[in-house]
Amino acid sequence: MQDESDTDDVDALQAKLAAAREEVGERIVGQDEVLEGLFVCILADGNALLESNPGLGKTTMVRTLAEVTDLAFSRVQNTPDLMPSDITGTEIIRETDDGREFVFEKGPIFANVVLADEINRATPKTQAALLEAMQERQVTAGGETYALPDPFFVLATQNPIDQGGTYALPEAQTDRFMFKLLVDYPEADEERDIVDLYTTGSQQVPVERALTREEIREAQELVREVPIAEDLRDRAIELVRRTREAEAVEFGASPRASMALVVAAKARAFLRGRNHVSEEDVEALAAPVLRHRIILDFRAERDGQTPDDVIADLLE
Amino acid sequence: MTDDADHRARMDAAIGAIRREAWKAAVTAAVVEAAAVFLGANLALAAVDPSWLPDRLRVPTSVTDPVGSALGRDLGTVAVPGSATVATAVGAVALAVAVWLRLREPLVEQFEAVNPAVAEKLRTARDAVEADADSRMARRLYDEVLADLRESSAVGLLNGARLGAVAVVIATLSLATVQVAVVDLALFDRPQPETNGSADEPTNYTGLLDGDRVLGDREEVSAGDDNQTAEIESSGGGRDVEEDRTFPDRGSSGADGGDSGGVDSQQAAFAAPEQVEDADLVREYNRRIRDGSDGASGDDDGSGGNDDGDDGS
Fold first, then answer.
1. ipTM over 0.85
2. What's the pLDDT score for residue B214?
């Protein structure tokens, strides 16, 4: 009887996840791979870095994700003059009946889903403050430590590095993102649908809430329980290790990448309604997990290779 | 047993069943192939008929005695055909090698290879069972794999095309073996032992021979016309033949144009002398003969003394 209850719970949760994806799809045309990456990231309790040229709907995507998941959402628009305290919060003097006192005013980082828009436009100091909070899941100010809400995701967007007025994220900090998702231009028919969707009727397509934060937490627990075959786990680890030895790679990925790849593969399996990790999961997530964690050798860059090319070679 | 343990136990039992089925399939295929090897070896030995291989091999008494005592009767000397024994040994080696080759790869992995739909989840479930995983997702996986295993089969472990081909080979070899047993299709004649042309040397019985091989090709011969008259003395021994008689020998042919018409001279055979045990009795017997010859010389021509077997023929 307990088994049937468990099975029903898991089935119901997976059905809700599918419904949430459909809801986001109501507002976001195409970009299925990126959307799946975002859901996987949430289920794996990780953070994602979305990179694309402006105007491809990154912000809308993350905002919609927050709307359908009953999560507190905040947005930080990064600019060169943004200070760390603008994100984490700061102590302010407040007038009370007992007199003036310092009160910590929480910044926008105190939300379940934080959209750090154009993170590479912030100065390294501000980036560091954001990413440290993201890693530690807490903020320290005025000698006090404040825990960030649970669940907590930072979904950061950035424009390509070669654009003006940007500060590349340090490698040590990009490693803290579980995924780097590349948002590409839509196909022609998708672009037609986007235009039709947003140029007729109401400006904002309504979406329904499909997932609660408790359900997300439960799904995160279940994801960690998804069994993975030992040889598949070893293959994921071996893949990460090979990035450190590949000729085209100057700096390879850390063990954090191995952990990320395995747990993300579990999350993808769960999201797809499977009870086990497939080889396909590992292969599909290798590039999102590794592409921002490796630095190519200058000869590979000279030859026009991208991190995705090198990862594809390593997968073969 | 708790519910979690029950899930693992069922999964473990299913994996055990898979191993057994894969083992059966491996042995079945190996037996079929070994049978083909046995028949092939048997046929080859019958055709080549190697001189070093004895026709029959005697089974040691250390083997026959326990079997005989188990059966409750004396088996006596038991011999088995040499070619069949060697072929059986070759077949046994082939069986062992075929089984070993099939068991080199883990049995469950062989099953997974022929059931790709269940392979990945079965592999994961195996690892989960070994790790004693009993989480909700692991239990769901066990249930899913057990349900899938009901739809899967180990038949794929038997390569149908290969088995069919081996079956055809077995049938062909069987027919060839029967043919060789009937016609004795020896590719090389077994070297015959040196006999110096003596016809009376004992030979080992090796079974029925092909009549045509023994007698050679049939040929027409003409009847001879040289008549010879021979007389045989009808009286008893002890008297010389009065005239010389000539009998055809190797040099004088009895039939025109026939080489086989000659008569070979042969030394007369004789029975081995009986061992006389009582020398005194012999002496007495001789004395009586001499006395009898002396006393009867007037009324007898001496033939009457030869009463010990020569009846006048």
1. no
2. 67
Across the interface, do B120 and A10 touch by the CB < 8 Å criterion? no
Say whether B141 and A7 touch across the interface (CB within 8 A): no
3-state secondary structure chain B: CCHHHHHHHHHHHHHHHHHHHHHHHHHHHHHHHHHHHHHHHHHHHHHHCCCCCCCEEECCHHHHHHHHHHHCCCCCCCEEEHHHHHHHHHHHHHHHHHHHHHHCCCHHHHHHHHCHHHHHHHHHHHHHHHCCCCCHHHHHHHHHHHHHHHHCCCHHHCCHHHHHHHHHHHHHHHHHHHHHHHHCCCCCCCCCCCCCCCCCCCCCCCCCCCHHHHHCCCCCCCCCCCCCCCCCCCCCCCCCCCCCCCCCCCCCCCCCCCHHHCCCCCCCCCCCCCCCCCHHHHHHHHHHHHHHHHHCCCCCCCHHHCCCCCCCC
**Which residue carries 């070679």 as its tokens?**
A313
Round to whole Å and give the CA distance between B285 and A292.
130
Written as tens digits, the pLDDT of chain A (316 aa) is 556 666 678 888 999 999 998 888 888 888 888 889 999 999 999 999 988 887 788 888 888 888 888 888 899 998 889 998 888 888 888 888 888 888 888 889 999 989 888 888 888 888 888 888 888 888 887 788 889 998 898 888 887 756 677 788 887 778 889 999 988 888 888 888 888 877 776 667 788 888 888 899 999 999 999 999 999 999 999 999 999 998 889 989 999 999 999 999 999 999 999 999 999 999 999 999 999 999 998 988 888 899 999 999 999 8
Whether residues A121 and A242 fall in one domain: no
Per-residue model confidence as pLDDT tens digits over B262-288: 555 555 555 555 555 677 888 888 888
* Interchain CB contact of B134 with A (< 8 Å): no
CATH number at residue A309: 1.10.8.80
Question: Are A91 and A169 in the same domain?
Answer: yes
Q: Is B122 on the interface with A (CB under 8 A)?
A: no
The whole domain housing A247 covers 227-316
Domain boundary among A192, A209, A225: A225
Does one domain contain both A54 and A101? Answer: yes
Give how many domains chain A has, as a whole number.
Answer: 2
- Residue identified by tokens 């109401």 is A202
B136, A278: Cβ pair inside 8 Å?
Answer: no
- The residue among A225, A254, A283 that closes a domain is A225
- Say yes or no: A207 and A284 in one domain: no
The residue assigned the tokens 């472990």 is B157
The answer to whether the Cβ–Cβ distance between B136 and A226 falls below 8 Å is no
**Is B140 part of the contact surface with chain A (CB cutoff 8 Å)?**
yes
Give the A:B interface size as CB pairs under 8 Å: 54
